[in-house]
Amino acid sequence: MDFMKVLYIDPGTGGMLFTVLFGLFGVVVFSMRALAMRLKFSVGSDKSAKINNKKIPIAIFAESKRYWNTFAPILDEFEKRKKNVVYLTCSEDDPVFKKKYEYVSAEFIGEGNKAFSRLNLLNASVVLSTTPSLDVFQWKRSKNVDFYIHIPHMPNDITLYRMFGIDHFDAVIVSGEYQEKQVRELEEKRGIAKRDIALCGIPYMDEMKKRFEESGKCPDHERTILLAPSWGESGLLSRYGEQLIDALVSTGYKVIIRPHPQSFSSEKEMIDRLMAKYDESSNVSWNRDNDNFEVLRQSDIIISDFSGVIFDFCLVFDKPVIYTNAKFDVSPYDAYWIDEPLWTFRILPELGIELTDDKVGNIKDLIDKCIDDPSFKAGRDKAREQTWVNIGEGAKRSVDFVLDKYDEVVAKKEAEEKKAQIQAKKSKKNKSKRLKPAKKEA
């Protein structure tokens, strides 16, 4: 694997350290913003009023607008319950800004170091985020944040993060028992105290399922193939490139290519070359929509590697997959510490057919066989059962968990404050006794 790609980490897992100068600048700028947020939440008569006038009650951090689908159902649930939440996003054009929420406040916190500077000085009771590697790279635990919760943005292995991806979170929301087992194994092997784990479900897939059911039957269309690779040397485009695309074009089917967003920066030269060569005239279209619903709905089969979109496609739209043996190097990932093979690679053979080097030339036969074979439905049902618990209740259960943790933080803070007040009174009383002059003898 190329050295720079091994070192690359996405915006959530960063690789660049803070500079002292930028940190000092952030203290001034973002302290003023934090003050404005505190004022917003200083009004209220509930039991947590004393805490709210100092902290943002609940903050949600989104490193990119592409995670809007993950958080939208959760924000809607907070809004429904009339609970104040601050949504911190690194995308100036995040869809949240078009929403007319009353209880959810959105803030663009910049990109890169500017964003992490804001986060590292954040003053909040509870923070929820899909971004991993807290306290590993740029994103440090703020001394003014009481509790961090991680929620995945894909319905597969929780160990597919770069090393130590979830080690420093106080709690993790998961969607399958195998994920909880993986977290516990990491805790045991690394000597980490057991964290809270909530088996909630997958809010964004619940919404996608509901949307799919309401959209009705997809109109008749020519057979459509969706090529959705991950990025990097193990990804489909890096491994097969023109060879696979040429084979797909030769089928006469409509071909949609939807690269991983990171490919457009980390593999820009390759993507630019392929996009120039394969345009609409070759019956190939390139998709970069932030919302992938329509492209998944219109496609009859997906060809991918280890991308999480496989599970959106199979479990929500109930369609088959052609996948590759990614020859995935687990050494940089948390999966390296896990004894069992990754669930993702164990379940794939039950969801579709593997694409091997010798089958690329016969891709049309592979596609037709995979679409027409009814046996893969049982595999999809099995995967759904194992990785998507509480279907339809993901947002509700996730918000329940976050609010429970917030209440615990409030109760703990109030207990500490009460204890401090009692201690202060005792100290004052003892000091008064020491300073009181002794009575003179008659």
Shape: elongated
Number of E strands: 13
Which percent band covers the strand fraction? 5-15%
**CATH-assigned homologous superfamily of the largest domain:** 3-Deoxy-D-manno-octulosonic-acid transferase, N-terminal domain
Question: Helical segment tally?
Answer: 17
In round numbers, the mean pLDDT is 86
Order of strands, main sheet, comes to 3-2-1-4-5-6-7
Low-confidence runs (pLDDT<50, min 5 residues)?
A: 1-31, 33-38, 40-52
CATH fold label of the largest domain: Rossmann fold
Q: Which structural class matches the secondary elements? A: alpha/beta
End-to-end distance: 94 Å
What percent of residues adopt helix (DSSP H or I)? Answer: 40-55%
CATH architecture of the largest domain: 3-Layer(aba) Sandwich
Give the CATH class of the largest domain. Answer: Alpha Beta
Explain this structure:
The structure is a single chain. This protein has 2 domains: 218 residues, Rossmann fold, CATH 3.40.50.11720; 169 residues, 3-Layer(aba) Sandwich (Rossmann fold). 43% of the residues lie in helices and 14% in strands. It has 17 helices and 13 strands. Strands 3-2-1-4-5-6-7 form a 7-stranded parallel β-sheet. The protein has a 6-stranded parallel β-sheet with strand order 10-9-8-11-12-13, with helices on both faces. Helix 4 crosses helix 7 and helix 4 crosses helix 17. The N terminus is likely disordered.
